[in-house]
Automatic annotation (TrEMBL), chain A:
GO biological process per UniProt: acyl-CoA metabolic process; fatty acid metabolic process
InterPro entries the record matches: AB_hydrolase_fold, Acyl-CoA_thioEstase_long-chain, BAAT_C, Thio_Ohase/aa_AcTrfase, Thio_Ohase/BAAT_N
MF (Gene Ontology): fatty acyl-CoA hydrolase activity
Gene3D superfamilies documented for this protein: Acyl-CoA thioester hydrolase/BAAT N-terminal domain, alpha/beta hydrolase
Upper classification of the organism: Eukaryota, Metazoa, Chordata, Craniata, Vertebrata
Name assigned to this protein: Acyl-CoA thioesterase 19
Protein family (similarity comment): Belongs to the C/M/P thioester hydrolase family.
Domain Acyl-CoA thioester hydrolase/bile acid-CoA amino acid N-acetyltransferase: 20-151
Catalytic machinery residues: S242, D334, H369
Automatic annotation (TrEMBL), chain B:
Pfam families (UniProt xref): BAAT_C, Bile_Hydr_Trans
Organism: Astatotilapia calliptera
Top-level taxon: Eukaryota
Residues of the Acyl-CoA thioester hydrolase/bile acid-CoA amino acid N-acetyltransferase domain: 19-147
Gene Ontology MF annotations: fatty acyl-CoA hydrolase activity
Family label: Belongs to the C/M/P thioester hydrolase family.
Name of the protein: Acyl-CoA thioesterase 16
InterPro entries: AB_hydrolase_fold, Acyl-CoA_thioEstase_long-chain, BAAT_C, Thio_Ohase/aa_AcTrfase, Thio_Ohase/BAAT_N
Every BAAT/Acyl-CoA thioester hydrolase C-terminal domain range: 207-442
Catalytic residues (UniProt): S236 (charge relay system), D352 (charge relay system), H387 (charge relay system)
Annotated GO biological process: acyl-CoA metabolic process; fatty acid metabolic process
């Protein structure tokens, strides 16, 4: 094929999108019927390279529309509009156990999307693409502001939407790996929620004193958020993933200070010593450490640590006392926490207590533990250093990539609607039913 | 403490290229609630521009600018992009302003807010607002200053391995170098060179002609350029350059040309700059001697016999259209467009008050027909559109101020056009210009069709 004769035109629209927005990848002016590979390349902050690619055949007009045409091979197949993002995997030769997570969310994720002649599977670095474009994926919408929060000894970051406000508030908690993880809060602020991401395991105060935070730490976060002039103090929700679920459920039920309008619990459990501190809960998990299993690849499986679900009420958050709507998101192939068994038990407890009208469960077959914002590449396992153990382990999260990615997309959409309905709604019962 | 929870205003996408559409949505309003959507932009020149539409929410408490009708404001009807193209300077601004971005590396920021009420919406603080970024440059587009062999301008290169089809992009007379269209063309896959051709003083028409040929060659020889896929795009005076080069150059053969607000007036032996200076002198004289409708100027120049048709409209805005008609009446003053041998797209506004561009396009069509080359020509003539046909969603200016060279005198020049029709023309013409360029510069026509 004479390159001069066919100038392949590649476009991605929008070229600057939010992380949860879809894009349309279009190839035009290719040789009709030709075989082409569309590939995405991303180098993350720690220097590792990730790629995703699909194999296509140009139609009679020389066009490929990724949102309409099927990929017949590559890292994804079928009609997958966003396959070039969610099927990202480390390039061949990378070390194992990587997970893609952006730390600096004030700059966009940069992705190069290129089109190559033929159905290629490797050696891309040595090939010259026919065309290539740069795409930016942002966590923060224009006008969203990031404000570091240190008052009251907190290690947190508040993301405020653009506009006068006041905005409903959100406390955002991640899991056992600790750190201040900001990307979900930044994205939720882009949807109109004043979101505070909180580090509660490796907070500055813990690193300096060696002591874990107590329950007041979360109540302080709630107060700081509630008192902010641009936050609607009576509309605050909490979202937790993994260990963050333990905190969320505990606060929702037992805190005298925290009054939540809604709670979202992803991949977690209500099993914990009731009214225990963070430290006590962690010790409870460690006590059951001998129940740790290993996969054939020697990956750590921690889901049994909390099984069987206890019948002793002092070992489970009394969800029968919950007074706000609760959304549970469960991956049925979760190998890290027994989130499915916990969800079933929660359902039973709430049915007995008569408050199950507050409960919504989203349960996804073949989804794993790490149910992240949409198009986040799926990590079935990755290396993890938790606050309990000193050295890194290869942790099995679970999930099959295609189903896990669909679960992320669906759960996010439903989560945003759930939050909008409970934090913004009330004025009009049909407000968000069109979403 | 309970506070009222506000509506949610969202703009999708919040970051877009300037020729891309967005959806503005307001949710969580009370049903049947009168609101005003208001857009605000603070320009590089420190002026404020705004647009607004009056809406009423539906039973779900939703206002969708894409789906709903505006009942009044700076635009009415179903206008998804009305909050951009109907923008105008806020009340109290200076007269005759024009909105054009000079720094194309940063986005244009537009703040869109929702207020309760219609007529009195300004009295209240907004209920919610969001910010949109409108970009001229897609990610990865490179901007390069060019100063080579005397040729000056700015080059924009798309991301990707290249090489690319390419455009020589020329603006009209007046203000300095404008880069935004080139930046946008590069974002659409073309290397685009915005040529600065009025700043330098060319001593003669030959020297000036050589300047354009040198510019074309520099571009053609650039490693990122496909040498036989170079076209020319010009607006107003820039279209004169396009006609002139394509008709007379023995070394430059553009693959296609696009002329917006076509002007083929270029008497042999004169330079563009000199012609433009003389035009400006005429304007100055006309302004100084407003009552003198017949002016005899004893200078040997191309315009001297024709200065009797000064035309001021009811607002005292000046139109060059009628005397332009006189000038082009003499074919010896015009570029012999019949010599052109490449595909040509002419885009004109039928309400152009600055130059007789529609008549020019008709003349071009006639000359090509006579030469059996009418199949080369495509014409777009938009009723109600004026002279300044810009990329889509740019605000329309029916008249703007024009400062006469070296004097403190300014006049308001009438460009023409009626805002809604003009904006529709900008949107439609851009799409058609891009598809024309894609056909001729990207697509490879068969040998038979090639001319």
């Amino acid at each position: 094929m004479d390159r001069k004769q066919y100038c392949v035109k590649l476009s991605v629209q929008p070229s600057r999108g939010l992380m949860d927005e879809k894009f349309i990848v279009l190839v035009q002016n290719a040789l009709p019927g030709s075989q082409l590979t569309i590939r995405a390349l991303h180098q993350c902050e720690d220097g590792h390279s990730w790629e995703a690619f699909g194999h296509y055949t140009a139609d009679t007009t020389g066009t490929i529309n990724v949102s309409e045409d099927p990929s017949i091979g590559g890292t994804y197949s079928g009609v997958e509009q966003m396959g070039l993002l969610w099927s990202f995997r480390p390039i061949p030769g990378s070390k194992s156990g990587l997970r893609m997570r952006k730390k600096n969310i004030q700059t966009p994720m940069e992705v190069t999307i290129s089109v190559y002649q033929g159905h290629q599977t490797e050696g891309f670095a040595d090939l010259v693409p026919l065309s290539g474009v740069a795409v930016e994926r942002w966590y923060m919408a224009p006008g969203v502001r990031r404000i570091p929060v240190t008052e009251g000894g907190l290690t947190a970051a508040l993301f405020l939407p653009s506009g006068p406000g006041p905005f409903p508030g959100l406390l955002d908690l991640w899991g056992g790996g600790g750190q201040l993880v900001e990307y979900r809060a930044a994205l939720l602020a882009s949807h109109g929620f004043a979101s505070m991401a909180i580090d509660y395991l490796t907070a500055k105060i813990t690193m300096e004193t060696g002591k874990m935070v107590d329950n007041q730490y979360f109540e302080t976060a709630y107060r700081v958020l509630q008192q902010h002039p641009q936050v609607c103090g009576s509309k605050i929700a909490m979202i937790g993933l993994s260990f963050g679920t333990s905190i969320t459920l505990k606060m929702a039920v037992y805190s005298e200070v925290i009054k939540l309008s809604a709670a979202v619990c992803i991949s977690g459990s209500h099993v914990q010593p009731v009214d225990g501190s963070v430290e006590e809960i962690l010790r409870f998990f460690q006590k059951n450490g001998e129940k740790t299993r290993f996969s054939e690849k020697n990956e750590v499986i921690w889901r049994d640590l909390l099984l069987p679900i206890p019948t002793d009420p002092s070992l489970k958050v009394n969800v029968g006392r919950l007074q706000c709507p609760l959304l549970l998101v469960v991956g049925e192939d979760d190998q890290n926490w027994p989130s499915q068994e916990s969800a079933l038990d929660i359902k039973e407890m709430m049915a007995r207590a008569g408050n199950s009208h507050l409960l919504t469960v989203l349960s996804y077959p073949n989804a794993g533990h790490l149910i992240e914002p949409p198009y986040t590449p799926h990590a079935r396992s990755s290396t993890l250093k938790t606050v309990e153990i000193e050295e890194k382990v290869m942790c099995l999260w679970g999930g099959q990539t295609v189903e896990h990615s669909r679960a992320q997309e669906d759960a996010w959409k439903k989560m945003v609607v759930f939050l909008k309905e409970n934090l913004y709604g009330g004025r009009n019962p049909t407000s968000f039913s069109h979403l | 403490m309970t506070q009222a929870v506000p509506p949610i205003l969202s703009i999708t996408p919040s970051r877009a290229l300037v020729d891309e559409k967005f959806q503005v949505l307001v949710e969580n309003l009370p049903p049947g609630c009168p609101v005003t959507l208001h857009s605000l932009h603070h320009s590089e020149d420190k002026d404020d521009w705004e647009a607004y539409g009056h809406y009423v929410s539906d039973h779900r408490g939703v206002v969708s600018v894409t789906e709903d009708l505006s009942f009044g404001g700076t635009y009415t009807g179903k206008e998804p992009m009305g909050l951009l193209w109907s923008m105008r300077p806020v009340p109290g601004s200076r007269e005759g302003l024009r909105l054009r971005k000079i720094n194309v590396c940063t986005p244009m920021l537009v703040n869109i807010s929702v207020h309760s009420g219609h007529e009195d919406f300004r009295d209240r603080t907004p209920l919610a607002s969001a910010l949109a970024e409108r970009w001229y440059m897609a990610p990865g587009v490179k901007r390069i200053d060019i100063n080579k062999q005397g040729v000056q301008g700015t080059l924009f290169i798309p991301p990707g391995p290249g090489p690319f089809p390419t455009l020589l992009d020329m603006w009209g007379g007046g203000v300095g170098l404008l880069e935004y269209r080139s930046a946008l063309l590069a974002s659409r896959g073309y290397v685009s060179f915005s040529l600065d051709y009025l700043r330098s003083e060319h001593l003669s028409a030959d020297v000036e002609f050589k300047y354009f040929e040198t510019a074309f060659n520099i571009i053609r020889n650039h490693p990122q350029v496909i040498p036989d896929r170079v076209g020319i795009l010009g607006i107003s005076l820039g279209s004169t350059v396009a006609f002139n080069l394509t008709a007379y150059s023995t070394i430059i053969k553009p693959r296609c040309i696009v002329c917006i607000s076509s002007n083929h007036y270029h008497p042999p032996g004169t330079t563009l700059k000199a012609g433009f200076k003389i035009l400006s002198k005429y304007v100055l004289l006309t302004v100084c001697h407003e009552n003198l409708m017949i002016i005899q100027i004893i200078v040997t120049n191309m315009y001297h016999r024709h200065f009797h048709k000064a035309h001021f409209d009811e607002n005292n805005y000046m139109s060059w259209r009628s005397f332009g008609l006189d000038l082009i009446a003499d074919p010896s003053n015009n570029v012999e467009v019949g010599r052109i041998n490449c595909p040509m797209l002419l885009v004109n506004g039928c309400d152009d008050q600055n130059w007789p561009t529609v008549e020019t396009a008709e003349e071009v069509a006639r000359l090509l027909r006579e030469g059996g080359k009418e199949h080369l020509l495509s014409r777009l003539a938009y009723p109600g559109a004026g002279h300044l046909i810009e990329p889509p969603f740019s605000p329309h200016f029916r008249a703007t101020k024009f400062i006469i060279l070296n004097s403190k005198k300014k006049v308001i020049l009438l460009w023409g056009g009626h805002t809604k029709a003009h904006s529709d023309a900008q949107e439609d013409s851009w799409r058609k210009i891009l598809s024309f360029l894609q056909l001729h510069l990207y697509h490879s026509p068969s040998v038979k069709a090639k001319l």
